[in-house]
Design goal:
Elements lengths: L3 E4 L12 E7 L3 E8 L12 E3 L12 E5 L4 E7 L3 E8 L15 E5 L6
Antiparallel strand pairs: 1-3, 2-3, 2-5, 4-8, 6-7, 6-8
Bound molecules: calcium ion.
Calcium ion binds next to strand 2.
Protein name: Beta/Gamma crystallin
């Protein structure tokens, strides 16, 4: 399923009880942030997980770090929209996505277990 756009602003408090991902434009969880939250009633993160096929335009290819919340702690980031292009997998919060993915993320998948790209 597709994540809902929750907020754009920096410094918003994200409920740790909701499955969500918070993107940051800079490394070390700094700079502008964007929270993408799984909407009610689809709060459970499972092995299949969920995805967001595209980001707001100003969030294309800018993400450098991110945090994940609740049980959706395995993620795959993609360099193209619609979870296409090159992929890297991560677990838990990531203070820097790495040179390969830095400022390239265009879409993302989240799930409760590790999955291959
Ligand atoms: Ca960046």
């Amino acid at each position: 399923m597709v994540l809902a756009l929750k907020s754009y602003s920096c410094g918003d408090v994200t409920s740790q009880w909701w499955n969500s991902i918070k993107l940051f434009k800079d490394a070390d969880f700094s700079g502008d942030s964007l929270t993408l939250e799984i909407p009610f009633p689809y709060r459970d993160c499972d092995q299949e997980g969920m995805r967001i096929d595209s980001l707001p335009t100003e969030w294309d290819a800018v993400t450098s770090s991110f945090r994940v919340y609740n049980t959706c702690w395995h993620s795959r980031l993609y360099t193209e929209a619609m979870t296409a292009g090159s992929c890297r997998k991560y677990k838990d919060d990531v203070s820097y996505v790495g040179d390969f993915m830095n400022d390239k993320m265009m879409s993302v998948r989240l799930q409760s277990v590790e999955r291959a790209c």
